[in-house]
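Probable membrane transporter protein
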Amino acid sequence: MIADLSPIVWAALAIGALVVGLSKTAVPGGATLSVALFAAVLPAKESTGALLILLIVGDMFALLSYRRHADWKVIVRMAPAVVLGLVAGWAFLALADDAWVRRVIGVLLLLVVAVTLWRRWLQARSEAEPGARSGAVAAATYGALGGFTTMVANAAGPVMSMYFLAAKFPVKAFLGTSAWFFAIVNIAKLPFSVGLGIITPGSLLLDLVLVPAVIVGALVGRRVASRMDQRVFDRLVIALTIAGAVYLLV
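Tokens:
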């Protein structure tokens, strides 16, 4: 597979790997762009397997930077729903074709954005404290969607970003909770992905070549995050989520 890749394809993959690193340490949800780039130049299922390994590498850098800032109550509350979402995603991926997978995820992401913006509007009116409305129903809903979308397309970043934004997490709490959540979930996905045959020796060799780009992106992202304004951060996450959803639909 590697010998057949053109320079343009390599450039797209390198940019995607760089964005993986950035998304893990500065711009949650930005990895949707990586999903789009990998799916555009590789077969859909192979792209999912190749990207998963790079995401795990990025997770390790995110943990090094933000491991002390996680809200473990949120992670534990979401765990049962995430497991159900993973199993549902595995079953869907085994049965559905690529076109259905893309459309379903795109619709779900747009719905998540709409619901989250509506919830934030309600919070602003009631002057709720951070996390006040992140109850069991919200945790179960976002957790199931997150588990499903991460299994079928590594696209849970926007889903979880919307949940953490709705909870009004500060930047570091947002990044720390995201770091632990995705590190655990992505490692849990490995047996499913191997069983589906979407992680192969060829994809692992491709990942080995692209890992340096992930590292560079993670280091750059760490510097960017320390200077990022909360409003800019929130708007960037929402914009990337909408862009990713539209890409998956078209």
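The chain has ten helices and no strands.
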